[in-house]
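[Discussion] Sanity-checking designs against the backbone

I'm trying to build intuition for which residues belong where. Below is a structure token string of 153 positions. I'd appreciate it if someone posts a full sequence so I can compare it with mine line by line.
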């Protein structure tokens, strides 16, 4: 069937040895602290995944910290205990939102270069607001679409 198969845009190069080390450290941190330090284990795992994940050749980076999640995690942990686990229905989406909001590209892929233009990976430029874009050699056509305007400062 057309459209089903391996993605050409996403790649992953992680291996079993580094995964196992990261997993074991995360389990030890979580078990020894009875789940209180789970944010630190989660950050270890998400950093490992991001380090080995590439989108169109651009590596991801996880920018979250255990300290940055700890306050919310403690609140969610206690509410989950008090509600006998019912609050977990809210925790899972909130935790996923936090993870997504703290995942980015390792190198800047889009930056302002002048009035009405933004830079794309490889130094090519695209006009903002529907203007033409250039394509670097070997770049996918999807990257040549005009970029949306930058968010207001």
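Best answer:
Here's mine. Compare freely.
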């Amino acid at each position: 069937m057309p459209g089903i198969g391996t993605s050409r845009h996403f790649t992953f190069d992680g291996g079993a040895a580094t995964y196992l080390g990261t997993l074991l450290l995360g389990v030890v941190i979580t078990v020894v602290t009875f789940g209180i330090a789970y944010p630190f284990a989660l950050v270890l795992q998400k950093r490992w995944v991001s380090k080995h994940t590439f989108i169109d050749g651009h590596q991801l980076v996880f920018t979250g910290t255990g300290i940055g999640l700890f306050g919310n995690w403690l609140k969610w942990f206690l509410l989950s205990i008090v509600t006998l686990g019912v609050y977990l229905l809210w925790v899972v989406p909130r935790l996923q939102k936090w993870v997504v909001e703290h995942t980015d590209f390792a190198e800047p892929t889009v930056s302002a270069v002048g009035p009405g233009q933004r830079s794309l990976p490889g130094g090519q430029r695209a006009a903002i607001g529907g203007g033409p874009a250039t394509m670097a050699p070997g770049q996918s056509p999807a990257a040549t679409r005009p970029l949306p305007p930058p968010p207001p400062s």
